[in-house]
Amino acid sequence: MSHPDDQSPVNPLPPVVVALFLLIVGVEAMLWAGAKGLIGGPSAVGWRLAALQQYAFSAEIMDWMLATGSWPIEHVKRFATYLFIHISFTHALFGGVLLLAIGKMVGEVFSQLGTFLVFVGSGIAGAIGYAVILDPDLPLVGSYPGVYGLIGAFTFLMWTRLGELGAPQARAFSLIGVLVGIQLLFGLLFGGNPDWVADVIGFGAGFLMSFVLVPGGWQRIREKIRRD
Q1: I need a surface site. Which of 19, 20, 48, 78 has the fewest CB within 10 A?
Q2: Measuring CA to CA, how many Å separate 22 from each of 6, 50, 104, 121, 137?
Q3: What is the CA radius of gyration of the chain?
Q4: How many domains does the chain have?
Q5: Considering the domain boundaries, does residue 1 fall inside one?
Q6: What is the pLDDT of residues 140-161, one digit of tens each?
């Protein structure tokens, strides 16, 4: 039996969140070091560009796959691999920090698999929505649609908790409101890519997926269907 004084005051991060973070950081560290000439020799300077060409999500490629009915794995993988490629060290750093902060709160309630599915599933949904709504020329990269999916899952937890307490459930959406507002403000002031659309869709996907992926969620849905 462990003594209370021996227990860590900080709860450990869920393993799936740590794994996702290390993958993001590991990829970025390799691309950054290559660009600085620290590893890989002269050819490593072009690693980031090569990674963007091979792993970024492309609306144009999705349109081609839909038109031809051909779905080669080298392009299908882009729906998820783009989450682990960033345009800069800072881009990856902010994505990783948000992943740790939000992923910890979600991963302490959801299962490891559920947390992973929210992150990747929201990323896939964000990419599809990005292509369908905007049909952009710019590729989509970065972990943010997946992270926003985790924010959606966290919002779901807050939403259900507020409902149990009889408090206004709309308060649960204050975080996403602030984040989207900041993105729009920065876009107006400094310009920017319309990839925030993928983030918002990722948020919505994470929120909706939580109805099933939250512990006991699927069972509650089945019971409701039987009652109806």
Answers
A1: 19
A2: 28, 21, 14, 19, 30
A3: 19
A4: 1
A5: no
A6: 999 999 999 999 999 999 999 9
